[in-house]
Amino acid sequence: MSTAASSAAISLQAVACVADGRTLLDIDELSITEGERIAIVGHNGAGKSTLLRLLSGFMRPAHGTLEVLGHALAGPMPATELRALRQKVGQVLQGLHLVARLSALENVLIGGLGRVRGWRGWTRCYPAHETEQAAQALQAVALLDRAHTRTDRLSGGEKQKVAIARLLMQRPRLILADEPTAALDPSAAAEVCQLLVQAARQATLVSVVHNPVLLPLLAERVIGLRQGRIAFDLPLTDLDHQELANFYRQ
Amino acid sequence: MTRLWRACLAGRRAKRCSGRSAFLALTLIYFLLVAACLGSLAREGELSLGRNPLRNLLKTAVEFARPSFIDVWWGNPEFAYRSDDGTLLRVENRRAVELDYLAGLVGATWTTIRIATLGSLLGAVLALPLAALTARNLAAPRPLAWLAKATLDVARSIHTLVFGLVLVGIVGLGPTAGILAIALHSMGSYGKLFAESIETLDIASIDAVRSVGAGPVQVFFNAIWPAVLPQFVSSHLYLWEFNIRDSTILGIIGAGGLGLLITEAISLFQWGRLATVLIVVVLLVASFDAISRRIRLALL
Question: Which of A78, B158, B209, B257 is spaced 20 to 30 A from A214 at the CA atom?
């Protein structure tokens, strides 16, 4: 394995995803280096969410080779290895997906579940140092005063912050964010993006973005997907705004 | 384009028409069934209300209007039983007799509550794994899911009374037969309700917990359990209340409790006592309903 390949957080080769006879994703080659910040842009149905599901091991490709943080994901994988990989991959999903009836603090503690073993993880009686870390994560997103509020009683922006605090708690090496600012007002969106980048300081960040304004906050490299294929893969500095507008118009 | 649009419209119209005609056909079949039921009963002469329906109604109403427990305060302390020729057979203190009956009623109520409570709990516990297997979104292996669903359907379709009759033959007379009968029948209903609550789960939030590398048991207790618990408790309270009503009938087949007193009162034509027992049943169900409604509201 070459040095370049070993420092690759993600590498895909000739990967295709098919569902109900329809090709969702067809990528010849894609490599993302550790620590990079990537934005994926494209129309609805272009394959952005499929790519993220593929990278988190929630979906398997029909063929091709796929490696995420040193784990080969294309073939069948033992459950323990999949869980080990998921511990290292943090996700902020479209529409948040916090456990509605648990408090903000308990939702943040879920981020550390991969590290908690035995009865503590079943009974939600976490060790004191985990609770302490969760409280710190909530403080980092300025939400410590709502720690004991049920998440279904929080506002959209607050929920997204809890999701990011969960990410901080998880301490992942790769962060996948699927439209992390959808349904947020512009100021909340910018704040959430900043928090996300802070959380990703030690990690690789791959985010699906629709709003071009947020691109400079979240990415240094932009990948455009169209009908499951890579339409362009450019550094942000080379990306012309007019070009991006045309891409969405097509 | 226009042709495509027209074809699309025609398709939608055809779908709507077929939907409407199917609904009309079903309505027609339903009314034919009602007509067949009514017509056949009328032809067999089984639709009559008896010879003196109004007089009988009035008589029954008067008997029911004087529940037996009133005698505890206003009964005749020296009620004399005489034979046809006027010979005094015995003298009875109605107040003492009815007081004894009330004491027995309290015991029977407690038996009914015990049968319903333990039967409901056992039914819920038995239903839980079956519901998890039946819920479509948890995608259990097909043969297991099918078997679990079949078990729940059979349990639900056999009446508590039938289970009770069979179980009295197996475990003998007494509350155990009642508890098991309630458990087996309500297991079917619990399983269905539990499976439906599991099916309404937010799968994405479960995926979010799985995505941090949590194991299956951790996922269950951190994502599934907190989401379904309120619905489970609500279903449990609902079926518990239902089972209190149901267990009053179980006494008829020898499981004890209020049902036994109902059977006794009916066989001896003691409508006053039947009224007393029924008042207790109504109070029991109403108070349980009030309590469970409060708990349900507090849980949501």
Answer: B209
